[in-house]
Model the fold of this input.
Amino acid sequence: METWRLIEDGACSGLLNMATDRAILTACGEGKAQPTLRLYGWTEPTLTVGYAQNSDRDVDLTRCLALGIPVVQRPTGGRALLHDRELTYSLVAPIPHPKFPANLRDAFRTVSEALVLSLAKLGVQNAEMTKPERASIKERSPSCFSTLNHHEITVNNKKLIGSAQRRTSHSFLQQGSLWIDCDRERMNSLFQFDTLEGRENNLEILRHSTVSLNELFAGKVGYEEAAQAFQMGFQNTFPVQWQHGNLSPYEVELRDRFLERAADESGAVGCNHLNQEKNADKL
Done:
């Protein structure tokens, strides 16, 4: 039976989180790491932007600096997201792999099945994947949670988990965020909009089309409980030999190399570009 690795890192900095995920993706693509589920949090509020997103256009970097919020570029696609009180998952697997369809959308759906089961373990019985006919983008927004893509997770038509994927020639990485709590007003204030009306419209979308776990459960869910449910959900969806583990020495070397590169590329406003390659895919 194939062995998959589970890494539980707890809270880390944004730079460390993104460099770690990228290191696992690289090692897996080189055949030096097995499929890996990583669960982690954030030591401080951090804004991540998608690998191809224009942060100068979409993010108010001056406000982020004033609030002490680091801005970090993800190795996956998608739009900007403020990470704070949440559980973040990343799943890395080689391509091709018998448990994942060859195309991006169906592979995304397979991971989303694990997310729905994870939420069921947590007590969220009405979570569902967005259907292709329902997935839509109402207007251009810099915010991840203001839009719905195929097979993302909603509860009562409100987005609860946002995810994005990167595919290289030999491996893929899917990252996603489960909101435990959220501050929509602060998040919305970090983005740039062409008009005040656009800012207000985006905030209304966040208010009416998103939900957090503690809004569903009246503040009764914490990180550890959510992480335990995700372990069970993924292990039940993918019945392989699961093994708790850490980064290999080679992955640590890769991670540190990516961290050093990020430090060299940091601008005065703290926007750290972890990944300049443009060979990823997004739903």
Observations:
- The longest helix spans residues 104-122.
- Residues 3-272 form a domain with the BirA Bifunctional Protein; domain 2 fold (CATH 3.30.930.10).
- DSSP finds nine helices and twelve strands in the chain.
- The chain has one domain: 3-272.
